[in-house]
Amino acid sequence: MQSSNPYEPTNQENRTQNENTERLHPAQKRSKSAEEIADAYASVADKLARWQRLDRLFAGRYRRRQFSDANGRVLDVACGTGQNFRYLSSSSEVVGIDISEAMLAHARTELDRLDLDGTVHQMDAQALDFDDDSFDTVISSFSTCTFPDPIAVLHEMERVCTPDGEILLLEHRHSDAAPLAWLQDWRAESHYEKNGCRLNHDPLKTVEQADLNVETTSTAFFGLISAIEITPR
């Protein structure tokens, strides 16, 4: 029976509202599995490696600012092709992990080229194969947008970080500039289906949901870039 309350939505209105919600948040309707993410990045690993110079021009200053003081034994979660490695101290011991073996092949080459003390391993960031308190610093860049369960990954980062260590994140986010934000929303679904990356996610909200101890945050480049410093509880 249809409601007689004129302010209560009808079934048709409910369907319309649900459809509108799906259009507003298309990339959140389904989360890719870790295996699907690995497949997506295997197909673009060579391209990303060729684009390292472009990455340095765009993101290099932010990577250097966020990661140059990382010290001790450093874990790079979702290290990809090793784009963070050049910004780390040569005195650090670097361990990189990624779900994609194709990406790690380039990361190994980068370690050798930079003559850094380090290793890389294929691993699911949601279940890190390391003991508690194994690393002095945990870093990750442009990655929470891809993890099937980013909160689980953040908890794993905290678990393997020493109590007096730090977790350093560099993330892209939904822009503060309306035209850029509109473009991110418009491209969100197709970009996620192709690359497994949520263009319009909010890393600060994800960190808050994980209930982590955030020390500092900053944004740059029209609000597209977020730098987050976390200390283990």
- The rounded distance between the terminal residues' Cα atoms is 54 Å
Average pLDDT reading: 81
From the alpha carbons, calculate the radius of gyration and give it in angstroms.
19 Å
Classification by helices and strands: alpha/beta
Shape: globular
Return the string of H and E elements: HHHHEEHEEHEHHEE
Q: Classify the helix fraction into a percent range.
A: 40-55%
Tell me the β content: 15-25%
Number of strands: 7
Biggest sheet record = 7 strands, mixed
Number of helices: 8
Low-confidence stretches: 1-29
Q: Walk across the major sheet and give the strand order.
A: 3-2-1-4-5-7-6
Question: Explain this structure to me?
Answer:
The structure is a single chain. The chain is of the alpha/beta class and 233 residues long. It is built from 8 helices and 7 strands; from the N terminus they run ααααββαββαβααββ. Strand 6 and strand 7 form a beta hairpin.
